[in-house]
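thought: fold this chain, then report.
action: predict
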Amino acid sequence: MIYSMTGFGKAESSDEKFKIVVELKSLNSKTNEIRIKLPSGYNEKELTVRNIILSELERGKIDLTLTNDISNGTNLTINSALFKDYYIKLNQLADEVGEKNKDFFPSIVRIPNIFKESEYKLSDEEWNIAEKTITDAIVKIKAFRAKEGESIKSDLINSLEGISGRLEEIESLDIERKKILRSKMDSMITEMEQNNKVDKDRFEQEVMFYLEKLDINEEKIRLSQHCKYFLDVLLDKNFVSKGRKLSFISQELGREINTLGAKAQFTPLQMIVVEMKDNLEKIKEQLANVL
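observation:
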């Protein structure tokens, strides 16, 4: 199983007292980036919520928003005594100055301290419902991630086959490539002999140089092994978080492909290397979103 880091999950719970809604969104990220928005009265539970997310979703840029139709607003109380005091005194002042307009109500309600906010007290009952709702949202986002992961897995396999599938073609081209390089080497030796300029040390250096250029067997073997290892890890059902490990293997794939390109000196082979690099870039792009 492979999981995407991108996902969305939404869950709701309600009874006669509460209606709790939890939304979870996640995007790809190299590290854990968690942002939590909780209603008034839930602040003491932020660390608990964070730990739940970390234990279940592992990695990604994750946003959790929890709302409650009851507790999301603040509990307001009216300072009745202060309101009445303002009202009485303003009316008395209006009588003294002969003011007929005594509609003071809109003005008094805007005076500071007329309304007082009281902190919402989160009950154990409400938190139990909220915690279950968070868990339900996590189940949904994990299902979303799994579905996206299946699509990514299919793309990764196709891109990997674009690399491993060309190895047989490289094998046949390599035979022709060796013939061409050997012909060049023979021509060089013949020219040196004709000009009586055969330097034994230089001759050995040239032979070693071309032999090294000729030999790409190790690169082909390692590239094949890396492709097989990549596929084994990708299809392994024993663990979930594979993104980093697959990224490391893709780096090894890149090294072997680059070495093949550097040693090729043969246009048809270099064209295959370019195609391999294109598929490798697709793999890297896809792995950026793998958990």
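thought: worth noting. The two ends are 11 Å apart (CA to CA).
final: tokens above.
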